[in-house]
Structures are given as C-alpha cells and as structure tokens.
Amino acid sequence: MYKLPSLEMADPGQTYQSTDVIVQENLPIRRLAFVATSREFCAIHYEVGGIASRRIVLIFQTAPDSAHLIWGGILFKALTDVPSLKAVINSNELIMDSLENNW
Fold it and tell me: Percentage of residues in the chain with pLDDT exceeding 70?
C-alpha cells in the first residue's frame, strides 16, 4: 500500500509523519482515524501525511477467513465517526480512485 513495505499506522491521536519534513525518524506515514465493521464489510478511515496530506477511506468485503478491497476514496477533511462517513459517501464528496492504485 502506497508502495511501502507495510501498512504501518499510528493509533488514533498518536504522532505520525504528518508532513514531508522528517521531524522524527521511524514514524509511520499513516494514522488510523477509525474502523467500522459489520457482518459483511469493514471500513477503514486513515490519514496520510506528506506534501499533500489527505484522508483515505477503504471498504473491504469480509468473510470469516478473508477480506477483499472493493472500494476506496480520498478526501481532504477529517471524519470523526460512522455517521460522518455515511454522509460523505452519500454526498459524493469522496474522490473515488481506481482499485488498481496502491492505497
């Protein structure tokens, strides 16, 4: 994901590499905002630092032994909870991107 060797993320509220200026070595470039799950789906919302900070939403279809990415989008504002995620999806504010891209 994002052509990095792992999907390492800081926990919500923890320090992460939020800009393109390296402040502290070994900080992850991503920070988890929240995860929402249902019987069939899992939504992950996280921040990505760098020169153009952004927020990512990934939707996975889940099964007892697997998960498959079915949708992803980019937005430039933070979401705080599941109702705000649903509102953004319904309003078409997310910039949907090809699932061929590296998230």
Answer: 86
Contact 56, 73 (CB under 8 A): yes
What CA–CA distances, in Å, run from 80 to 30, 45, 47, 87, 88? Answer: 16, 9, 12, 11, 11
Residue 18: inside a domain: no
Q: Exposed, middle or buried, 21 (CB in 10 Å: 0-12/13-18/19+)?
A: exposed
Question: 3 in a domain, yes or no?
Answer: no
**Nearest residue to 16 via CA among 42, 45, 46, 36:** 46
Evaluate whether residue 77 is within a structural domain: yes
What is the number of domains present in the chain? 1
41 occurs within a structural domain: yes
Range of the domain at 60: 30-96
Condensed to tens digits (0 to 9), the pLDDT of residues 64-84 reads 999 998 888 888 788 888 899
Helices and strands in the chain, H and E counts:
1, 5
